[in-house]
């Protein structure tokens, strides 16, 4: 199913009010409430992230490879510590999904797919993806993105008919996270997460060259079309642009720095997910 139709079907299934013409305008009261409750306080983001992560787990098939998920969690915690990201307890979930994807609803929660594990080759490349998502979390990109790009219309469009989540704000965070998994957060936020992710990768002792390698994998798989269903690749920038920028940052800031490219433990897990 083409990505844009998959997303629409997903939103219609989860958020019936968003797909009924008569309900698109929704309630301005709900929208006003959302605008005031979607703030960037750590406590609020933790609450919203917890609720949206719970809904994601209910709606998507969780992988039964708990050992690999546990190892990926160790990588996430290592990266969060390197980034000085101490506001949340970081938790990574492995979804059994063929799409090459990773996303976050904020609040310390990170989702990656088995499709991503198949597409990437090394631990450093997976770490680059996770570090990027940590950048989105530390910069509050989910709640800031909702407020900046959707504003008060979000609650009105999503309505109050969604199942599984108790508040319009939590439902909106979930919907935004799923949409961002497909379309990205926008040029400014994606560039910032790329930059922070690269710095975190180096601080955690990984080879910085793994970051542009991730986009080389994506370009090889999907090319550079703007509508691709890839993690953190939305309408712009393109994979080629991101490769160029990351390589320039590496040359300017990290010189000949090298670090961990892969580990024997990751290679054993990777054998379960061949390219």
Summarize the topology.
Elements: H1 3-14, H2 28-37, H3 42-59, H4 66-83, E1 91-95, E2 102-106, E3 109-113, H5 114-119, H6 123-138, H7 141-150, H8 153-158, H9 168-183, H10 187-203, H11 210-222, H12 239-254, H13 264-270
Parallel strand pairs: 1-3
Antiparallel strand pairs: 2-3
Helix pairs in contact: 3-9, 4-6, 4-10, 6-10, 6-11, 7-9, 10-12, 11-12
General description of the model:
- Residues about 1-35, about 150-165, about 180-185 and about 225-235 have low confidence and may be disordered.
- Helix content is about 60%, strand content about 5%.
- Strand 2 and strand 3 form a beta hairpin.
- The protein has one domain (about 25-270).
- It is mainly alpha-helical and about 280 residues long.
How big a fraction of the residues is strand? Answer: 5-15%
Given the helix and strand composition, which structural class is it? mainly alpha
Query: Which percent bin holds the helix content?
Result: 55-70%
H/E order of the elements? HHHHEEEHHHHHHHHH
Number of spatially distinct domains: 1
Continuous helix count = 13
Q: Which strand order does the major sheet show?
A: 1-3-2
Q: Please identify the oligomeric state.
A: single chain
Radius of gyration: 18 Å
| C-alpha end-to-end distance | 22 Å
By DSSP, the count of extended strands is: 3
- How does the major sheet shape up? 3 strands, mixed
Output mean pLDDT: 76
- 3D shape: globular
| pLDDT < 50 stretches | 1-35, 152-164, 181-185, 227-235
């Amino acid at each position: 199913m083409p990505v844009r139709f998959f997303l629409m079907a997903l939103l219609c299934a989860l958020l019936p009010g968003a797909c009924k013409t008569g309900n698109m305008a929704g309630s301005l009261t709900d929208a006003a409430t959302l605008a005031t409750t979607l703030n960037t306080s750590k406590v609020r983001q933790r609450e919203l992230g917890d609720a949206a992560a719970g809904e994601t787990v209910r709606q998507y098939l969780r992988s039964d490879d708990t050992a690999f998920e546990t190892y990926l969690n160790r990588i996430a915690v290592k990266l969060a510590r390197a980034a000085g990201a101490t506001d949340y307890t970081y938790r990574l979930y492995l979804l059994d999904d063929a799409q090459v994807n990773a996303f976050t609803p904020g609040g310390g929660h990170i989702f990656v797919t088995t499709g991503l594990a198949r597409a990437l080759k090394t631990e450093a490349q997976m770490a680059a993806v996770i570090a990027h998502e940590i950048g989105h979390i530390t910069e509050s990109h989910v709640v800031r993105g909702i407020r900046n790009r959707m504003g008060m219309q979000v609650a009105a469009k999503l309505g109050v008919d969604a199942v599984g989540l108790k508040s319009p704000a939590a439902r909106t965070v979930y919907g935004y996270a799923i949409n961002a998994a497909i379309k990205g957060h926008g040029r400014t936020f994606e560039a910032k997460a790329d930059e922070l992710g690269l710095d975190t990768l180096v601080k955690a002792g990984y080879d910085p060259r793994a970051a542009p390698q991730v986009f080389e994998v994506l370009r090889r798989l999907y090319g550079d079309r703007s509508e691709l269903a890839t993690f953190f690749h939305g309408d712009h920038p393109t994979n080629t642009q991101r490769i160029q920028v990351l390589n320039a940052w590496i040359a300017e800031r990290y010189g000949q720095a090298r670090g961990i490219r892969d580990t024997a433990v990751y290679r054993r897990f990777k054998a379960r997910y061949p390219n």
